[in-house]
Specification:
The protein is an alpha/beta fold. The protein contains 27 helices and 39 strands.
Length: about 950
């Protein structure tokens, strides 16, 4: 079962997976060492399942069967097993066959496939997960189709095949159903796979956040320490399930009023969640005990792992392997804990002391415990509650991706707030965030540009600006600080989305109104002239003005500014009531309040937010009926978010405006990846295969100018040829071939694309001008052998731009665009989109750079052909998406004229295609 014992063993096929019910399993190749496991597994399969597998009674496996099912060449014969705790729960195998249906070797591209799943694990999605993985293995080995014979009565297995989303053929032959599946991924198969992934990962988080029973392992008898604190918080929060304390030296029935046991195995009832708070060297023992008892998930508060250095990191990796081997999921280690305020759960399995946060509509995920404390405090101080909270610590297993999967269809969560120190897999994160952002806001504060200690998730080489652009593309609201995270979250949780950027400003301070007006302009909003109510304004005046603004068709949102009254009897409560009454009467627009030294107003505006928690249930006992709880606040009691500075309020409103615009654009047109009839995908694939035939794995090849132009031309991208000019006579001959007017350019690396250094001569209309320019160029910059001059035909004048696509190891292919020149490069004025780009992405890409006005007629210039530019971007996107061997393309400059575009230079690098994780089978990250 190791590479050492079998050099042909494909270790990269091993994977941890989440099953339909949220539990985990490990998938790995079957080896010669698995004979005993296979026999034991088969003995636990029912006679009916055996009959469906072999089409006849088959009570036991013969020695010949065992040998056949455990000996594979991992090419023409492959077997995979799904395991939990090291034991088989399901198997799948394929055997390559020829056209006659008999065993064959390559180039035969069809294989017969068969499954067997232990009856106790049927219905958990084991077979469908195995099909994904054996399909990926088969494609790797050159197999393009699976054939399967299934008895008509075996409806479950037929459904596994028919629901997979692959193109398939179905027939009835000799009393059995004959199925043929085309293994090429399709849009439908990918959608099926991602829907299953979402349900499975969401369910795995639900098991952690809504357990029916919790045991805290490591509760001290003295009441001191992390374990005792976690137990008290669970008890005092009113947890609705059964609660247990575990201490190996316990001598009494109760610890802190909770039923206590010396070991988790001594608890006579199931335990859904275990909170582990023992020293790191004792955690493996605790994990093993939990696994043997059937615990579904763990929150490990213990420190001493990746954050403590290389030894701790190795301990952390082993912890993940051990946890997953038992089919469990893990939050932590070094976690702060989890909270779920749902009325039928009331879970506070964290180090946050009672009272825990009130029930609200915000979901919060953090990797840092300290940041988690700050965010919880900030939300509580401003009167906002939570739906759920996860502080994942070192995030060795459960990550922000898993929590997004859960929040996507969690009806209790309206806004998702995440503080992330690393994105892990940006491609998957943006995919999940985009889907979630289509139904509810996702706000992200990302701290640090490098992976901190303990976070073993691989980083990305993408610059921060690129990451931000990709998050924006996905509809994510990216903020810079945790303060902004709270500011934006409060507005989105309490107020509707604005319909546009027009902002009404009103208040009792002219100066504060002007500051707010300026802040709106800075954020790209369209503020109306501030309405000054004067310092003598009463709450009734505020209500009237706010009502008028909310009624008006000229604004989309309102910012109210307020400063203290001069009188001793400041009507703060009356003002809060007046504002809430106006909002309740006209609830369609968002309202934010800017206050100066009016803390009482903050409290009054948010006083109705959240719901009180009931008295705790008896320790370890079931909860009272949640239907007896009070209902949620009415519209009249809705919170109005308030901010101590105009800039903070306007920033929150601006983010809501931009998110609302993204949502509306998505609803109107999600975009499409266009189909082109003039693309030669097959020819490009053959050309790349020939070019890479002699290239070693891991190496890259820069294509010659001719090969680059040939490859691009197969996708309708015409790059103008250049002819070398090692001498003035050669330059003249080249110009005669191309036809005048021509350009003379240097291609030396230090001068390439640097027209500002004098290495380019344009509009040379005859041989005399060409020879004179050649002499000037060589006299000023160096010898021809150093300059590597070339001659190229002139193209219509326009705007010089740069188009590029590059492969990031984590994010995949990224399409980039900007204007050519040192100024754009210096300012980092480049926009980015993930590949494959839609027509909507391409249009947004060229409009999102700061210098975009130059493309649309800046200061009376003629607008250029942006539709042709968008077409070029989409064709390049298709090229790199269809052929992952193309790892880097740089088109510079691309001259965009009034009609058409001209690619003057193209650099293309290729390498053997890396694995596409987003198209492969579902797996949990393996760090």
């Amino acid at each position: 079962m190791t590479i050492e014992s079998d050099p042909s063993y494909p270790a990269h096929w091993e994977a941890d997976v989440v099953l339909r019910d949220g539990g985990t399993a490990r998938i790995r190749p079957i080896t010669t060492e698995d004979a005993g496991r296979l026999v034991s597994f088969y003995e636990q399969v029912s006679d009916e399942s055996k009959y469906y597998r072999f089409f006849a009674p088959y009570p036991r496996l013969s020695d010949r069967d065992v040998h056949r099912f455990t000996h594979h060449d991992y090419v023409d014969r492959v077997g995979l097993a799904a395991t939990i705790g090291g034991e088989f729960i399901g198997t799948v195998r394929y055997d390559r066959i020829g056209p006659d249906g008999r065993p064959a070797s390559g180039p035969a591209d069809e294989a017969e496939v068969a499954f067997l799943v232990q009856d106790a694990h049927q219905g958990r999605g084991v077979a469908s997960t195995l099909l994904e993985h054996i399909g990926a293995v088969a494609r790797e080995r050159g197999i393009r189709r699976f054939a399967a014979e299934v008895l008509p009565a075996n409806n479950k297995m037929i459904k596994v095949f028919t629901d997979a989303g692959y193109q398939q053929k179905r027939s009835f032959e000799d009393g059995s159903v004959h199925l043929t599946l085309d293994l090429e991924p399709t849009a439908e198969s990918l959608a099926v796979q991602r829907a299953r992934e979402q349900r499975a990962e969401a369910h795995s988080v639900q098991r952690l956040l809504a357990p029916g029973s919790v045991a805290v392992v490591g509760v001290s008898r003295s009441g001191a320490g992390v374990g005792a604190a976690a137990l008290r918080n669970l008890r005092d929060s009113g947890f609705r399930g059964h609660l247990y304390a575990v201490n190996e030296a316990v001598t009494r029935d109760l610890l802190d009023g909770v039923r206590a046991y010396p070991a988790i195995g001594a608890i006579g009832s199931p335990v859904d969640l275990a909170v582990i708070a023992v020293p790191a060297d004792r955690v493996p023992e605790a994990v093993a005990a939990c696994g043997e008892h059937g615990v579904q998930g763990l929150v490990v508060l213990s420190a001493g792992y990746g954050e403590s250095g290389p030894a701790g990191l190795a301990r952390q990796r082993e912890l993940v392997r051990q946890v997953r081997s038992y089919g469990m999921r893990l939050i932590g280690p070094n976690a702060y804990g989890v909270i779920n305020t749902a009325p039928d759960v009331e879970l506070n399995a964290s180090l946050t002391p009672a009272p825990m946060p009130t029930r609200g509509r915000i979901g919060l995920f953090t990797q840092s415990g300290a940041i988690g404390i700050a965010l919880l405090s900030g939300l509580l101080r401003r009167g906002e509650g939570l739906s759920s909270f996860v502080s994942a610590g070192n995030r060795a297993d459960v990550s922000g991706n898993d929590i997004l999967q859960y929040w996507y269809d969690d009806e209790a969560t309206d806004v998702a707030l995440l503080y992330l120190e690393t994105l892990g897999n940006p491609r998957k994160f943006t995919r999940l965030a985009r889907r979630t952002a289509a139904v509810k806001p996702v706000v992200v504060a990302k701290g640090g540009r490098h992976s901190p200690a303990g976070h073993v998730v691989p980083g990305t080489r993408l610059p921060e600006a690129t990451v931000s652009a990709l998050l924006r593309q996905a509809g994510v609201i990216r903020v810079d600080t945790v303060t902004e995270l709270v500011d934006v979250g409060l507005l989105l949780a309490a107020q509707p989305l604005p319909a546009g950027p027009r902002i009404a400003i009103l208040g009792n301070s002219e100066s504060l109104g002007i500051l707010t007006y300026d802040a709106c302009l800075t954020q790209g909003l369209r503020p109306l002239p501030p309405l000054d109510l004067t310092t003598a304004a009463s709450p009734a005046d505020f209500r009237t003005a706010l009502t008028d603004a909310l009624r008006s068709e000229d604004c989309d949102a309102v910012v109210v500014t307020a400063i203290p009254w001069v009188s001793e009897d400041a009507p703060t409560d009356d003002l809060a009531g007046a504002l809430r009454d106006a909002v309740a009467e006209h609830p369609g627009k968002p309202v934010a309040v800017v206050h100066v030294e009016l803390e009482e107003l903050v409290e009054a505006l948010s006083a109705v937010r959240g719901l009180p928690h009931p008295a705790p249930s008896p320790a370890g006992g079931p909860a009272p009926d949640p239907q007896s709880r009070a209902g949620v606040p009415t519209a009249a009691g809705a919170s109005i978010p308030s901010y101590p500075a105009a800039e903070r309020a306007v920033k929150a409103v601006a983010e809501a405006v931009r998110y609302g615009q993204w949502r509306r654009a998505l609803a109107d047109d999600d975009g499409r990846v266009p189909e082109y009839e003039d693309i030669d995908e097959t020819g490009a694939a053959a050309q790349l295969a020939a070019l890479l035939a002699d290239v070693d794995a891991g190496a890259a090849l820069t294509l010659t100018d001719w090969h680059a132009r040939e490859l691009l031309a197969r996708y309708g991208i015409r790059a103008l040829p250049t002819l070398p000019a090692p001498s003035a006579d050669a330059a003249a001959r080249a110009a005669a071939v191309l036809g005048y007017p021509v350009a003379l350019k240097t291609t030396a690396p230090h001068l390439r694309h640097r027209a500002d250094l004098g290495g380019v001569r344009l509009d040379l209309t005859n041989e005399a001008e060409l020879r004179r320019s050649y002499e000037e160029l060589t006299d000023a910059l160096g010898k021809p052998a150093e300059l590597l001059p070339v001659v190229q035909a002139m193209v219509p004048r326009g705007v010089d731009t740069v188009v590029r696509s590059v492969i990031d190891p984590a994010a995949g292919a990224v399409l980039s665009f900007g204007l050519a020149g040192v100024a754009s490069e210096l300012l980092g004025d480049t926009a980015h989109r993930l590949v494959p780009a839609t027509d909507r992405d391409a249009a947004g890409l060229i409009r999102s750079i700061r210098t975009a006005p130059l493309l649309f007629g800046w200061r009376g210039s003629d607008p250029v052909d942006t539709p042709a530019l968008e077409d070029l971007l989409l064709r390049l996107s298709r090229l790199v998406d269809d052929h992952p061997e193309v790892i880097d393309v740089r088109l510079e400059p691309v001259v965009v004229a009034a009609e058409g575009v001209s690619v003057l230079s193209a650099t293309v690098r290729v390498a053997h295609a890396p694995a596409r994780g987003d198209l492969g089978p579902r797996t949990l990250p393996s760090y």
